[in-house]
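re the bet — no i am not wrong, look at it urself. input seq straight from the record:
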Amino acid sequence: MTSKRVEDAAAFLAAARREGRVIEALPEAIRPQSLAEGYEVQSAFRGIWPDTVAGWKIGATAVPTMDKFGVKEPMYGPFFARNVYTSATKPAAPTRHAMTLESEFAYRLGRDLPARAMPYDREEIVAAIDAIMPAFEIVGTRYTQVPFHDAGSVVADCMLNAAMVLGTPTTEWRDLDIPRHPVRLTIDGTLAGEGSGADPLGDPRKVLDWVINTLSTAGIGLKRGEILSTGTCTGMVPLKPGQTAIADFGALGRVEICFT
């Protein structure tokens, strides 16, 4: 894409997000034609959006979801400080159209991880994490429907992120068997999904390995305090305003939200 097309696409998505508008798709003239072009638009969006990046969400962390999007690896996108809530919370709905939620293990960085040529190894990455917490990612795209056929437009829209809800951080987590750790999601008291830490790539730490090094290769360094949310353990579940969602992460606590 030319720089003008990238800038125009970012501005188009920023206006839709700011105004709460729903669009069918990006206009053909400025629509990304590849995943790489989608990330170009995402980068330009970060440059013009008037908020601080609070962290990164990682999606398509299971092979069936990758197949659905037509990709061979996960995808990442930023989420922003004004869209981060602390459990339990009852905020206004962040979008005017359909939302879904995902129950995820989120990790908080305790030190900076600057972009560099040499990949970060697992030991360095684990040492840089100071806490783990239960989280909800609220998926609320600018598009009328999730464009599974168009991964470039998905990543351009910051991986469809609308909000993030964080539970209580746990700093003593390294001895926990996270892949076998159960997660149970209820909506208004009714079971809506079950899973475990094995759902995202078999182990959320594999997601951390992938995203930290992928961002580093792209020249994006990470900062102390940023959050990395590692992909759903309970699928994508619709959430309507007024419904109460609770994800129970057992010893790690719960995360709860009810949108007004």
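see?? The domain at 52-258 is CATH 3.90.850.10 (Fumarylacetoacetate hydrolase; domain 2). told u. also The radius of gyration is 17 Å. so pay up
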